[in-house]
Task: inverse folding
């Protein structure tokens, strides 16, 4: 084992015999562009709604529920797709989330939520994961579009303005504390704070 | 046997009276029947423009003491099923401190034998059975309801003279 590693190190350590320095640097650069581009393209492909609802678990449950909400259809036609809320936009956080998602591949392979009944039984647990994530990052995915700095309280209903100008403004609460279940149906909320 | 005859005679009489009333019911002029449809039965009329729900958060006066209060805000997307009652996340007793919303009245915690329950009574669980949001819309049918306060006032004034 050690001998093998030593041999590899010797090959890497020696100057190239057959290829020119120009070929190696330029070739390395081009290969890097291709690989990096390919990696990001593949990453973006997994970050599309069509990819998410490619599985019946997502299409038949959560996607159906989303369709009647204001995040799917509204007066101005701006809409949020799955990754807008469920995948961080920042690159490092996105990679971290994508690695976590390997658990979801496991779930798909072993069919943990492949029937409506199984999904309903897991709904509370799955929802709690998302609430915990949004609570921990101060509802970052909400704030990617809904920027507190530019909120006009005078254009909100008195009730909304009251809540946003006190609890939200002081940082005591974050979006998800009150706005649970705005895009999907809620599970049984017994014992959840605020219900 | 005699009583049976008497009973049958009565039922025949009752039946014929019923027939006569149904005949009068059928004679209601056609233009007074389809007041809400306003179009022939085989024509799909253009639906009226949808109105915005009143969302001013100011209590509406009740038209009579026992009227379930109407909802002065939007309830779009509020989940109300066996799992969740979204209304209660503001209007439950233990939530009114944070929300400053009116608490549901104590009658909602009583069963039909007037026993108080710890939780909302199942027969009062589905809020929108009685409580509804409002539109600023014209009445579809004429309404000549008179508030009883007006009736009492009119009565006392009549008695004065």
Result:
């Amino acid at each position: 084992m050690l001998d093998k590693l030593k041999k590899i190190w010797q090959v890497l350590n020696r100057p190239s015999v057959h290829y020119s320095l120009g070929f190696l640097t330029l070739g390395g650069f081009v290969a890097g562009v291709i690989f990096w581009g390919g990696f990001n393209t593949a990453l973006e492909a997994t970050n599309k709604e069509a990819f998410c609802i490619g599985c019946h678990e997502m299409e038949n449950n959560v996607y159906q529920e989303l369709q009647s909400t204001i995040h799917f259809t509204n007066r101005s036609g701006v809409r949020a797709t799955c990754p807008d809320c469920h995948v961080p936009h920042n690159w490092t956080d996105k990679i971290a989330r994508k690695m976590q998602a390997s658990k979801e591949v496991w779930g798909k392979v072993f069919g943990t939520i492949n029937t409506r009944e199984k999904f309903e039984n897991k709904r509370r647990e799955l929802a709690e994961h998302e609430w915990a994530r949004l609570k921990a990052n101060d509802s970052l995915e909400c704030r990617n579009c809904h920027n507190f700095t530019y909120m006009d309280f005078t254009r909100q209903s008195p009730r909304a303005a009251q809540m946003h100008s006190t609890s939200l403004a002081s940082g005591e609460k974050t979006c998800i504390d009150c706005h649970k279940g705005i895009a999907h149906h809620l599970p049984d909320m017994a014992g959840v704070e605020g219900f | 046997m005699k009583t049976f005859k008497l009973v049958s005679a009565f039922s025949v009489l009752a039946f014929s009276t019923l027939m006569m009333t149904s005949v009068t019911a059928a004679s209601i002029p056609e233009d007074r029947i389809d007041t809400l449809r306003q179009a022939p039965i085989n024509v799909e009329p253009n639906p009226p423009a949808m109105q915005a729900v009143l969302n001013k958060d100011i209590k509406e006066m009740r038209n009579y003491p026992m009227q379930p209060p109407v909802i002065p805000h939007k309830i779009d997307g509020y989940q109300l099923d066996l799992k969740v009652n979204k209304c209660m996340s503001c209007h439950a007793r233990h939530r009114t401190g944070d929300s400053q919303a009116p608490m549901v009245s104590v009658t909602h915690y009583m069963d039909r034998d007037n026993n108080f329950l710890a939780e909302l009574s199942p027969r009062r669980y589905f809020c929108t059975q009685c409580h509804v949001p409002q539109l600023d819309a014209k009445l579809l049918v004429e309404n000549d309801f008179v508030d009883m306060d007006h009736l009492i006032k009119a009565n006392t004034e009549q008695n004065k003279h």
